Structure formats: structure tokens, C-alpha cells
Amino acid sequence: MTGPLVDAGSVPAWLRPLVEISGEVDSRTFTRFSPPNGEYTRSASVLILFGEGPRGPDVLLLRRADTLGSHAGQVAFPGGGAEDGEDPVATALREAEEETGVDPAGVRPVAVLPELFVPVSRFAVTPVLAHWQTPSPVHAVDPGETAAVARVAVRDLADPANRFQVRRQGYVGPAFAVDGLFVWGFTAGLLSVLLSLGGWEREWNRGDVRDLEAALREHDWETR
User: Which residue ranges does UniProt annotate as crossing the membrane (predicted)?
Assistant: First the structure.
């Protein structure tokens, strides 16, 4: 089931557009990839946790450890594979607590987005939108999994100076360089769509397309 989990009128005005539209979008809003027919995928969830900090609305991101077998060193939302009997919301909250130490008691899940297929890891990922009603301290709980945790202001993600696109083997997609983080791939794609749906997007230069490998080298101190 996708769509709002709460009355949109009960969330802050800046988050309301995302809650309202969550029941109207499908996977094609976010990705061009669909699971191959008959091929195995594993269920997973990510927590897209929006709070409000000194610089206005922000979102919780982490940088994955370099030693991980997949997506090593990449910036991501907290999340991971589902355990037996878990629904997407339970998975997202559990993984976020395990990876960042966030206290689930202060987190209010507000909407579930459509399941998205990630070809590289063969995960079928359900994004869960949440409002951080009572923020708690966060940190990299297990350095073997998480290298860093950060609350990134939405206004900085929307800043045209922090946005560009990257190209790799025919793939062209959005990227962000903000707060010492280089964000690309699945996470950047989701953030880019959410900025648009939430009414936060500002005009930016989509013609600024950079080679991904060169961008990774440029931000090496931030991603290794």
C-alpha cells in the first residue's frame, strides 16, 4: 500500500505537498527501471526523514562505509533489507535506528512511496517518508556499516550551485555536492524528484554534465 499514512493537514505546511501527492505517483515518477519478470528481488526500505533545524527543513543522510560489498562509500538514506514479517515502515525504522541511532519514538511515518527497483543490488526498495517530530542525537553506530551521518538542509540541496548531473556508461542522472557530501545514483535521483514534488526546486543547470569517475576523484576525500 502506498500513499499517505496520516492526514496531510496534521504535518507541517512545508511537508504537506509530499504527503498529499504520495498517493498519486507511481514508480515511473522516480525511475525508469522495472524488475525483470520472474527474476528474484529482495524487499528493502529506506527512511526519508525530514526534520526542521536551524536552516529550516532538512533530511537525514548517511555515508556508507568503504568496506561494504555494495554501494561502498556512497551517500544514502538510512535503510536496508526487510526481515521476515516486517512491513516497509518497520524495516525503515529499524534500519535507521541501527545505522544512525535515531530514536524511533520521535519519528512519525507520514507516507509510503511506490516500490522502486535498484538493478545494481537487485533490491525492490520502498521509500518511507517521515517527520522527525522530536529530533534525537544521531551518529554512525557501526563504523563497519556507516562512515558518517548528517542532517542536510533542503535549501542547500535546492541551491543551484550545489547541483549538476553525472554521466557513466550511458547513464546520466542528478548529483549534489553539499556539506562535504557527494550524492549521486539512487539517492540523488530520489532527492531530485522530491525537491520538485515538494515545491522546493529552483532552476539549475541541467546542462552541467560531468564524468562520474572524474567527480568521484574530485570528491575523493569525502567518499573514500
Answer: 181-200
Pick the CATH number of 3-223 from 2.120.10.10, 3.40.30.10, 2.40.50.140, 3.90.79.10: 3.90.79.10
DSSP helix/strand/coil, 119: coil
Q: Provide the whole-model pTM.
A: 0.93
Is residue 78 a contact partner of residue 100, using CB atoms and an 8 Å limit? Answer: yes
The Cα–Cα gap between 7 and 217 comes to 45
Phi, psi of 191 (to 5 degrees): -60, -40
At CA 175, angle to CA 169 and CA 178, rounded to 5?
Answer: 145
Of 45-49, 50-54, 168-172, the poorest mean pLDDT is in 168-172
For residue 183, give the H/E element and its range: strand 181-183
Q: What distance lies between CA 66 and its chain's CA centroid?
A: 18
Ranges of H-type helices in 9-165: 16-21, 88-100, 154-158
Q: Count CA atoms closer than 13 A to 37's CA, side-chain side.
A: 0
How does DSSP classify residue 167? E
